[in-house]
Structures are given as structure tokens and as C-alpha cells.
């Protein structure tokens, strides 16, 4: 892609005024998570890639500050909006300038969007939900991004993450999610165990994925609503989380390797659970 060039120096940031959190679809219970340590509150970040930028611009909860794009990427983005009109003015740039801004390993596809981090949803409305996905201290941003993408594909009603020991929002996570970060509702809870207990009381069957579980997931009889719980990379589910699960199940694999990366396990288990409760 060839486009007009601009200065390779990083443009000065403009401070954005955070907008109030809309009521949204979540509501009666309120959790108060601790702030992420990886980033100071209100600090902006860069999202990049066509899908990621598109869905961020379409998310009413997202505060967008600046849009940098090559002329080619600008045209491709504009095609995805009514009337070909982008909701934010574009500052044209070059691929080289974006490489210097984001790092040479960032697959930016010619566009980058400076945004305020999403304000975490801290309330959870369970009424009407059929499938909820809970992440028990999953910290790798590539894995979390891929999981969010799968959760969106399988119409998960909400994804639960822990306020501590979870992946902070970042450009890497957003790119791995390919737009899903701005689509699927992600609710941050302070105590996952307490939340699972409340979900069980509300009629949810809590299913924990465990490679050593006695029963294969595709053999478990399930009916909605279901909360599927995935454990951290390497560690698996924490002890209390395991104890709170109604069912512990595994994914049967005939090969020499009997465990999967958590993001791969997520897509397979979501497929099985969605098929079971359809």
C-alpha cells in the first residue's frame, strides 16, 4: 500500500474527557473491582487493524480520540460505515510512520485508533442469558483476545474476568480479538467464586473445563443456562473454582498431547456447549 507520508514522530496525545458509563444490558448487582495495575486510570492506548478499529468506532461505550490511517486503509474503513462516512476525522499517515508508532510487529493494516480504555462493566444481569463464559485468571492477552473472538462467534451472552490476575486491555489483546473486545460484553468481578455461587443460585449449571476430569464434555447432558469456566494457562482452575463447579469435564483427544492452549480449548468447548443447549 502506498500513501502520503508524514512525520514519523509520534504525534502529541490529546487528553480525552471520559464519558459517563451507559446503563447498558447489565444491571442489578454491582461489583467493585480493583483497578488494573498495568495501566494508570484514563491512560489512552492505540488499537490497530481494520476489524479492531471498525468495531471500536462503532461501540457507543468507546471514547475515540484520534484516527490515523493511510489513504487506502481510510477508503477500506469508510466502506464499512453508512454513506461511507467515518465518525472521526482521519489524519493520513504512512505505513512506515505507523510501524514506528506501534512497533514493527504490529499488524496494523494501515490504521490505528487512539482510544480511552473501556470502563469495565461491573454489573451482571443474568435474566435471559443462556451461555456465559468465565475466565479464571487467564492472563495472556493473545489468548484472551482469541477467546473473546470465539465468544462472539458462539453468541456468548457475557464473559466474566477477574479484577486481579487477568489480561489488561491493550492493542495486542484487541488485535487478537479482531473487534470482539468492542462487541461481547466483558464483566469484571472482584471475586469469581462468589459470582459463581450467585449464578448457581440463579439456576446456572457451572461447567469447569479440566483435562483430568472424569467425563468428556461432549457426553455431558446440559440445558441452558450454562456458565463455562476456563482456567489459567498452565495452572488450570483454582481449587475453590473447581469445588463450585457442578460438572468438571474434559475434551477427549486421541493424540499424544492431551491438553490444548486455553484459547483452542475455548473454541472447542463453546462449540460443544452451544450445540448441547441449542
Automatic annotation (TrEMBL):
Residue ranges of domain RNA 2-O ribose methyltransferase substrate binding in the record: 46-121
Disordered: region residues: 1-35
SMART domains per record: SpoU_sub_bind
A single cellular component GO annotation: cytosol
Stored Gene3D superfamilies: 3.30.1330.30, 3.40.1280.10
Molecular function per GO: RNA binding; RNA methyltransferase activity
Pfam families: SpoU_methylase, SpoU_sub_bind
Keywords attached to this entry: Methyltransferase, Transferase
Annotated SUPFAM superfamilies: alpha/beta knot, L30e-like
GO BP annotations, alphabetical order: methylation; RNA processing
Name assigned to this protein: RNA 2-O ribose methyltransferase substrate binding domain-containing protein
Amino acid at each position: 500500500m502506498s500513501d502520503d507520508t508524514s512525520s514519523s514522530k509520534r504525534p502529541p496525545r490529546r487528553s480525552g474527557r471520559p464519558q459517563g458509563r451507559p446503563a447498558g444490558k447489565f444491571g442489578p448487582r454491582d461489583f467493585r473491582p480493583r483497578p488494573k495495575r498495568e495501566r494508570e486510570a484514563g491512560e489512552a492506548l492505540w488499537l490497530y487493524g481494520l476489524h479492531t478499529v471498525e468495531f471500536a468506532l462503532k461501540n457507543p461505550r468507546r471514547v475515540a480520540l484520534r484516527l490515523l490511517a493511510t489513504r487506502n486503509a481510510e477508503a477500506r474503513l469508510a466502506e464499512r460505515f453508512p454513506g461511507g462516512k467515518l465518525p472521526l476525522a482521519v489524519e493520513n499517515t504512512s505505513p512506515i510512520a505507523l510501524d514506528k508508532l506501534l512497533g514493527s510487529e504490529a499488524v496494523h493494516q494501515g490504521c490505528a485508533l487512539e482510544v480511552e480504555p473501556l470502563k469495565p462493566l461491573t454489573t451482571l444481569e443474568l435474566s435471559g442469558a443462556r451461555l456465559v463464559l468465565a475466565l479464571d485468571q487467564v492472563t495472556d492477552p493473545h489468548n484472551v483476545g482469541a477467546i473473546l473472538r470465539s465468544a462472539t462467534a458462539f453468541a456468548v451472552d457475557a464473559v466474566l474476568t477477574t479484577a486481579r490476575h487477568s489480561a489488561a486491555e491493550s492493542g495486542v489483546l484487541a488485535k487478537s480479538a479482531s473487534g470482539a473486545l468492542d462487541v461481547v460484553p466483558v464483566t469484571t468481578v472482584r471475586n469469581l467464586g462468589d459470582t459463581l455461587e450467585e449464578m448457581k443460585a440463579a439456576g446456572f449449571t457451572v461447567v469447569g473445563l479440566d483435562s483430568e476430569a472424569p467425563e468428556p464434555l461432549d457426553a455431558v447432558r446440559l440445558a441452558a443456562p450454562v456458565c463455562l469456566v476456563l482456567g489459567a494457562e498452565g495452572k488450570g482452575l483454582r481449587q475453590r473454582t473447581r469445588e463450585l463447579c457442578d460438572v468438571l469435564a474434559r475434551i477427549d483427544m486421541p493424540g499424544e498431547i492431551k491438553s490444548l492452549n486455553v484459547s483452542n480449548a475455548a473454541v472447542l468447548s463453546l462449540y460443544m456447549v452451544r450445540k448441547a443447549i441449542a
